Amino acid sequence: SAQRKKLEFTLETHDFMPYATDKNTYWTGYYTSRPNSKRFERQGNNLLQVAKHLVAFEHPHNKTFEADLLGLKRVMGVMQHHDAITGTEKQHVTNDYVKMMSAAAGDVQTSLQTIVFDLLKNNISDASEIVTLTSCLLANVSRCAEAENDQFTVAVYNPHGQEVSHFVRIPVVSASYSVIGLHGGKIPAQISPVIDTFPNVPGTASLYELTFEAKDIGPLGVNYFYVVKEDQKVNEPNLIKPTLDTTLGTSTTGIELDQATGLLKSVTLNGVRQSVSQQFLYYKASNRTDGVRASGAYIFRPVPGTVAQVIGDQVKFSTYKGELYDEVHQTYADWLKQVIRVYKDANYVEFDWIV
Prior knowledge:
Residues 25-101 form the Glycoside hydrolase family 38 central domain. This protein is an alpha+beta fold and 355 residues long.
Protein backbone atom coordinates (compact mmCIF):
# COMPACT_ATOMS: atom_id res chain seq x y z
CA SER A 1 0.00 0.00 0.00
CA ALA A 2 1.01 3.62 -0.24
CA GLN A 3 1.43 3.73 3.54
CA ARG A 4 3.83 0.76 3.62
CA LYS A 5 5.85 2.21 0.76
CA LYS A 6 5.96 5.55 2.63
CA LEU A 7 4.92 7.45 -0.46
CA GLU A 8 4.51 11.19 -0.16
CA PHE A 9 1.85 12.94 -2.21
CA THR A 10 1.84 16.54 -3.31
CA LEU A 11 -0.68 18.63 -1.42
CA GLU A 12 -2.82 20.68 -3.79
CA THR A 13 -4.22 23.86 -2.23
CA HIS A 14 -5.24 25.90 -5.26
CA ASP A 15 -8.73 26.13 -6.73
CA PHE A 16 -9.43 23.65 -9.52
CA MET A 17 -12.31 25.77 -10.85
CA PRO A 18 -12.62 26.85 -13.52
CA TYR A 19 -11.47 23.58 -15.03
CA ALA A 20 -9.26 23.76 -18.14
CA THR A 21 -8.25 20.98 -20.53
CA ASP A 22 -5.93 23.03 -22.73
CA LYS A 23 -4.29 26.41 -22.79
CA ASN A 24 -6.92 29.16 -22.94
CA THR A 25 -9.66 26.52 -22.89
CA TYR A 26 -11.71 26.90 -19.72
CA TRP A 27 -14.89 24.95 -19.06
CA THR A 28 -16.96 28.01 -18.17
CA GLY A 29 -19.15 28.30 -21.26
CA TYR A 30 -22.03 26.61 -19.46
CA TYR A 31 -22.13 29.44 -16.92
CA THR A 32 -24.01 31.54 -19.47
CA SER A 33 -25.33 29.07 -22.06
CA ARG A 34 -29.07 28.67 -22.66
CA PRO A 35 -30.27 31.14 -19.99
CA ASN A 36 -33.88 30.83 -21.15
CA SER A 37 -34.11 27.09 -20.55
CA LYS A 38 -32.36 27.46 -17.18
CA ARG A 39 -34.86 30.11 -16.15
CA PHE A 40 -37.74 27.94 -17.39
CA GLU A 41 -36.50 25.13 -15.16
CA ARG A 42 -36.47 27.45 -12.13
CA GLN A 43 -39.99 28.65 -12.94
CA GLY A 44 -41.08 25.03 -13.29
CA ASN A 45 -39.81 24.26 -9.80
CA ASN A 46 -41.58 27.31 -8.41
CA LEU A 47 -44.81 26.17 -10.02
CA LEU A 48 -44.33 22.65 -8.65
CA GLN A 49 -43.90 23.86 -5.06
CA VAL A 50 -46.97 26.10 -5.30
CA ALA A 51 -49.01 23.26 -6.80
CA LYS A 52 -47.98 20.89 -4.01
CA HIS A 53 -49.19 23.43 -1.44
CA LEU A 54 -52.58 23.99 -3.00
CA VAL A 55 -53.32 20.36 -3.83
CA ALA A 56 -52.36 19.24 -0.31
CA PHE A 57 -54.48 21.91 1.37
CA GLU A 58 -57.56 21.86 -0.83
CA HIS A 59 -57.84 18.54 -2.70
CA PRO A 60 -55.40 16.01 -1.20
CA HIS A 61 -57.22 13.00 -2.67
CA ASN A 62 -58.13 14.34 -6.11
CA LYS A 63 -56.68 11.82 -8.58
CA THR A 64 -56.65 14.26 -11.51
CA PHE A 65 -54.66 16.85 -9.57
CA GLU A 66 -52.26 14.19 -8.27
CA ALA A 67 -51.69 12.91 -11.81
CA ASP A 68 -50.90 16.41 -13.05
CA LEU A 69 -48.48 16.88 -10.15
CA LEU A 70 -46.75 13.61 -10.94
CA GLY A 71 -46.28 14.67 -14.56
CA LEU A 72 -44.55 17.91 -13.54
CA LYS A 73 -42.44 16.09 -10.95
CA ARG A 74 -41.17 13.71 -13.62
CA VAL A 75 -40.28 16.52 -16.00
CA MET A 76 -38.49 18.40 -13.23
CA GLY A 77 -36.51 15.23 -12.57
CA VAL A 78 -35.46 15.11 -16.23
CA MET A 79 -34.48 18.78 -16.06
CA GLN A 80 -31.95 18.00 -13.31
CA HIS A 81 -29.83 16.11 -15.86
CA HIS A 82 -26.37 17.66 -16.00
CA ASP A 83 -26.82 18.77 -19.61
CA ALA A 84 -30.22 20.34 -18.94
CA ILE A 85 -29.25 22.24 -15.81
CA THR A 86 -25.98 23.49 -17.36
CA GLY A 87 -27.36 24.27 -20.81
CA THR A 88 -24.88 22.05 -22.65
CA GLU A 89 -27.45 19.99 -24.53
CA LYS A 90 -27.94 20.23 -28.30
CA GLN A 91 -30.71 22.43 -29.67
CA HIS A 92 -33.13 19.62 -30.55
CA VAL A 93 -32.76 18.28 -27.00
CA THR A 94 -33.52 21.74 -25.61
CA ASN A 95 -36.61 21.86 -27.79
CA ASP A 96 -37.76 18.55 -26.32
CA TYR A 97 -37.12 19.74 -22.75
CA VAL A 98 -39.17 22.89 -23.37
CA LYS A 99 -41.98 20.90 -24.99
CA MET A 100 -42.20 18.52 -22.02
CA MET A 101 -42.04 21.34 -19.47
CA SER A 102 -44.67 23.40 -21.27
CA ALA A 103 -47.10 20.47 -21.43
CA ALA A 104 -46.61 19.51 -17.77
CA ALA A 105 -46.84 23.11 -16.59
CA GLY A 106 -50.02 23.61 -18.60
CA ASP A 107 -51.65 20.56 -17.01
CA VAL A 108 -50.75 21.70 -13.50
CA GLN A 109 -51.92 25.25 -14.13
CA THR A 110 -55.31 23.93 -15.22
CA SER A 111 -55.60 22.21 -11.84
CA LEU A 112 -54.39 25.31 -10.00
CA GLN A 113 -56.95 27.49 -11.74
CA THR A 114 -59.73 25.24 -10.43
CA ILE A 115 -58.33 25.29 -6.89
CA VAL A 116 -57.75 29.05 -6.83
CA PHE A 117 -61.28 29.64 -8.10
CA ASP A 118 -62.63 27.48 -5.26
CA LEU A 119 -60.62 29.54 -2.77
CA LEU A 120 -61.89 32.81 -4.19
CA LYS A 121 -65.51 31.66 -3.97
CA ASN A 122 -65.07 31.39 -0.20
CA ASN A 123 -64.05 35.06 0.04
CA ILE A 124 -66.65 36.79 -2.11
CA SER A 125 -70.42 37.09 -1.93
CA ASP A 126 -71.07 36.63 -5.64
CA ALA A 127 -68.92 33.90 -7.17
CA SER A 128 -70.29 34.69 -10.61
CA GLU A 129 -68.08 37.79 -10.62
CA ILE A 130 -65.05 35.56 -11.16
CA VAL A 131 -64.56 34.27 -14.68
CA THR A 132 -62.57 31.21 -15.66
CA LEU A 133 -58.97 31.79 -14.64
CA THR A 134 -56.14 31.39 -17.12
CA SER A 135 -52.38 31.91 -17.01
CA CYS A 136 -50.33 34.39 -19.03
CA LEU A 137 -47.30 32.26 -19.87
CA LEU A 138 -45.99 34.80 -22.40
CA ALA A 139 -46.23 37.89 -20.20
CA ASN A 140 -42.44 38.26 -20.34
CA VAL A 141 -42.72 38.97 -24.08
CA SER A 142 -45.73 41.31 -23.74
CA ARG A 143 -48.41 38.75 -24.59
CA CYS A 144 -51.48 38.12 -22.45
CA ALA A 145 -54.74 37.38 -24.24
CA GLU A 146 -56.96 37.91 -21.18
CA ALA A 147 -55.48 41.37 -20.58
CA GLU A 148 -56.69 42.47 -24.02
CA ASN A 149 -60.26 42.61 -22.66
CA ASP A 150 -61.85 45.83 -21.42
CA GLN A 151 -62.00 44.28 -17.95
CA PHE A 152 -60.39 41.26 -16.37
CA THR A 153 -59.54 39.78 -12.98
CA VAL A 154 -56.08 39.13 -11.55
CA ALA A 155 -55.67 36.46 -8.86
CA VAL A 156 -52.53 36.66 -6.70
CA TYR A 157 -51.44 33.71 -4.55
CA ASN A 158 -48.83 33.95 -1.78
CA PRO A 159 -46.99 30.61 -1.36
CA HIS A 160 -44.94 31.85 1.61
CA GLY A 161 -45.49 31.30 5.29
CA GLN A 162 -45.63 35.00 6.04
CA GLU A 163 -47.55 38.00 4.76
CA VAL A 164 -46.04 39.58 1.65
CA SER A 165 -46.61 42.49 -0.71
CA HIS A 166 -45.70 42.17 -4.38
CA PHE A 167 -45.68 44.44 -7.42
CA VAL A 168 -47.78 42.89 -10.19
CA ARG A 169 -46.85 43.77 -13.77
CA ILE A 170 -49.19 42.91 -16.65
CA PRO A 171 -48.83 43.63 -20.38
CA VAL A 172 -51.89 45.55 -21.61
CA VAL A 173 -53.06 47.01 -24.92
CA SER A 174 -54.45 50.35 -23.75
CA ALA A 175 -52.91 53.36 -22.04
CA SER A 176 -55.15 53.58 -18.98
CA TYR A 177 -56.80 51.25 -16.47
CA SER A 178 -58.27 51.32 -12.97
CA VAL A 179 -57.45 48.58 -10.48
CA ILE A 180 -60.10 47.71 -7.88
CA GLY A 181 -59.19 45.74 -4.76
CA LEU A 182 -60.98 43.01 -2.83
CA HIS A 183 -63.13 45.44 -0.82
CA GLY A 184 -64.02 47.73 -3.73
CA GLY A 185 -61.41 50.42 -3.18
CA LYS A 186 -59.33 51.83 -6.01
CA ILE A 187 -55.66 50.81 -5.88
CA PRO A 188 -52.83 53.05 -7.16
CA ALA A 189 -51.63 51.85 -10.55
CA GLN A 190 -49.10 53.05 -13.09
CA ILE A 191 -48.76 52.46 -16.81
CA SER A 192 -45.63 52.77 -18.93
CA PRO A 193 -44.86 51.80 -22.52
CA VAL A 194 -43.08 48.49 -23.01
CA ILE A 195 -39.49 48.73 -24.18
CA ASP A 196 -40.00 46.13 -26.92
CA THR A 197 -43.01 44.58 -28.67
CA PHE A 198 -41.13 41.40 -29.74
CA PRO A 199 -42.34 41.43 -33.38
CA ASN A 200 -40.97 37.93 -34.03
CA VAL A 201 -43.26 36.36 -31.41
CA PRO A 202 -46.72 35.34 -32.71
CA GLY A 203 -49.78 36.96 -31.18
CA THR A 204 -50.96 40.46 -30.34
CA ALA A 205 -48.23 42.57 -28.80
CA SER A 206 -49.14 44.76 -25.84
CA LEU A 207 -47.86 48.32 -26.08
CA TYR A 208 -47.99 49.10 -22.38
CA GLU A 209 -47.35 47.57 -18.99
CA LEU A 210 -49.70 47.98 -16.04
CA THR A 211 -48.18 47.88 -12.56
CA PHE A 212 -49.89 47.83 -9.17
CA GLU A 213 -48.96 46.59 -5.71
CA ALA A 214 -50.75 43.60 -4.23
CA LYS A 215 -50.37 44.52 -0.57
CA ASP A 216 -50.47 42.34 2.51
CA ILE A 217 -51.37 39.00 0.92
CA GLY A 218 -51.71 36.61 3.85
CA PRO A 219 -49.63 33.44 4.35
CA LEU A 220 -50.70 30.82 1.80
CA GLY A 221 -53.46 33.26 0.90
CA VAL A 222 -55.06 34.32 -2.37
CA ASN A 223 -56.49 37.69 -3.32
CA TYR A 224 -58.01 39.09 -6.46
CA PHE A 225 -58.10 42.46 -8.23
CA TYR A 226 -60.45 43.84 -10.89
CA VAL A 227 -58.83 45.71 -13.77
CA VAL A 228 -61.05 48.02 -15.87
CA LYS A 229 -60.03 50.00 -18.94
CA GLU A 230 -60.47 53.79 -18.71
CA ASP A 231 -60.05 56.78 -21.01
CA GLN A 232 -56.83 58.43 -19.84
CA LYS A 233 -53.35 58.94 -21.24
CA VAL A 234 -50.19 57.09 -20.36
CA ASN A 235 -47.39 58.95 -18.58
CA GLU A 236 -45.29 60.77 -21.17
CA PRO A 237 -41.48 60.59 -21.11
CA ASN A 238 -40.04 63.29 -18.88
CA LEU A 239 -38.24 65.95 -20.89
CA ILE A 240 -34.72 66.26 -19.48
CA LYS A 241 -32.60 69.38 -19.90
CA PRO A 242 -29.49 68.44 -21.89
CA THR A 243 -27.07 69.93 -19.38
CA LEU A 244 -28.36 68.05 -16.34
CA ASP A 245 -27.95 64.48 -15.13
CA THR A 246 -31.14 62.48 -14.67
CA THR A 247 -32.12 61.39 -11.17
CA LEU A 248 -34.77 58.75 -10.56
CA GLY A 249 -36.22 57.43 -7.31
CA THR A 250 -35.93 59.04 -3.90
CA SER A 251 -33.16 60.30 -1.67
CA THR A 252 -33.17 56.90 0.04
CA THR A 253 -33.29 54.63 -3.02
CA GLY A 254 -32.52 55.85 -6.50
CA ILE A 255 -30.24 56.03 -9.50
CA GLU A 256 -28.46 58.76 -11.41
CA LEU A 257 -27.77 58.76 -15.14
CA ASP A 258 -25.09 60.56 -17.08
CA GLN A 259 -26.96 62.98 -19.33
CA ALA A 260 -24.27 62.90 -22.01
CA THR A 261 -24.13 59.10 -22.40
CA GLY A 262 -27.43 57.88 -20.93
CA LEU A 263 -25.49 55.32 -18.88
CA LEU A 264 -25.83 54.56 -15.20
CA LYS A 265 -23.73 56.93 -13.08
CA SER A 266 -24.62 56.16 -9.46
CA VAL A 267 -26.92 54.09 -7.24
CA THR A 268 -28.32 55.16 -3.86
CA LEU A 269 -29.43 52.51 -1.38
CA ASN A 270 -30.43 53.19 2.23
CA GLY A 271 -29.45 56.81 1.67
CA VAL A 272 -25.86 55.96 0.70
CA ARG A 273 -24.78 57.06 -2.79
CA GLN A 274 -22.22 54.93 -4.64
CA SER A 275 -20.71 55.74 -8.02
CA VAL A 276 -21.42 52.89 -10.43
CA SER A 277 -20.55 52.11 -14.03
CA GLN A 278 -22.37 49.49 -16.06
CA GLN A 279 -21.39 47.99 -19.40
CA PHE A 280 -22.49 45.24 -21.75
CA LEU A 281 -19.56 43.51 -23.42
CA TYR A 282 -18.95 40.58 -25.74
CA TYR A 283 -16.03 38.39 -26.78
CA LYS A 284 -15.34 37.07 -30.26
CA ALA A 285 -15.51 33.28 -30.01
CA SER A 286 -12.63 31.14 -31.22
CA ASN A 287 -13.42 28.36 -33.68
CA ARG A 288 -11.81 24.95 -33.45
CA THR A 289 -8.10 25.24 -34.34
CA ASP A 290 -5.14 22.90 -33.82
CA GLY A 291 -7.40 20.24 -32.35
CA VAL A 292 -8.52 22.50 -29.48
CA ARG A 293 -12.24 22.54 -28.73
CA ALA A 294 -14.08 25.59 -30.05
CA SER A 295 -15.80 28.09 -27.80
CA GLY A 296 -19.40 27.09 -27.17
CA ALA A 297 -21.78 25.52 -24.68
CA TYR A 298 -18.95 23.86 -22.72
CA ILE A 299 -15.91 26.03 -23.36
CA PHE A 300 -15.48 29.76 -23.03
CA ARG A 301 -12.62 30.44 -25.42
CA PRO A 302 -12.30 33.89 -26.99
CA VAL A 303 -9.98 34.56 -29.90
CA PRO A 304 -6.44 34.56 -28.43
CA GLY A 305 -5.05 38.04 -27.86
CA THR A 306 -8.44 39.78 -28.01
CA VAL A 307 -10.28 41.66 -25.27
CA ALA A 308 -13.96 42.14 -24.54
CA GLN A 309 -15.71 44.63 -26.82
CA VAL A 310 -17.97 47.27 -25.27
CA ILE A 311 -21.50 47.53 -26.68
CA GLY A 312 -22.72 51.11 -26.75
CA ASP A 313 -20.68 53.72 -24.90
CA GLN A 314 -23.59 56.08 -25.55
CA VAL A 315 -27.24 54.97 -25.49
CA LYS A 316 -30.65 56.33 -26.38
CA PHE A 317 -32.84 56.67 -23.31
CA SER A 318 -36.21 57.88 -22.04
CA THR A 319 -37.28 58.29 -18.43
CA TYR A 320 -40.74 57.75 -16.96
CA LYS A 321 -41.79 58.97 -13.52
CA GLY A 322 -44.94 58.04 -11.66
CA GLU A 323 -46.57 57.40 -8.31
CA LEU A 324 -45.27 53.85 -7.85
CA TYR A 325 -41.91 53.88 -9.60
CA ASP A 326 -39.46 55.72 -11.82
CA GLU A 327 -37.74 53.94 -14.68
CA VAL A 328 -35.41 54.54 -17.59
CA HIS A 329 -35.51 52.76 -20.96
CA GLN A 330 -32.05 52.38 -22.51
CA THR A 331 -31.38 51.22 -26.08
CA TYR A 332 -27.82 50.00 -26.62
CA ALA A 333 -28.58 48.48 -30.03
CA ASP A 334 -31.59 47.14 -31.93
CA TRP A 335 -30.98 43.78 -30.24
CA LEU A 336 -29.97 45.01 -26.76
CA LYS A 337 -32.25 47.04 -24.50
CA GLN A 338 -32.54 47.59 -20.76
CA VAL A 339 -35.00 48.95 -18.21
CA ILE A 340 -33.76 50.19 -14.81
CA ARG A 341 -36.65 50.59 -12.38
CA VAL A 342 -36.82 52.13 -8.89
CA TYR A 343 -39.97 51.55 -6.82
CA LYS A 344 -40.74 54.45 -4.50
CA ASP A 345 -41.31 52.31 -1.39
CA ALA A 346 -38.67 49.62 -2.02
CA ASN A 347 -35.01 49.42 -1.02
CA TYR A 348 -33.69 47.87 -4.22
CA VAL A 349 -33.13 48.76 -7.87
CA GLU A 350 -34.56 46.47 -10.56
CA PHE A 351 -32.80 45.70 -13.86
CA ASP A 352 -34.56 44.08 -16.84
CA TRP A 353 -32.57 43.54 -20.01
CA ILE A 354 -33.43 42.06 -23.38
CA VAL A 355 -30.97 40.47 -25.79
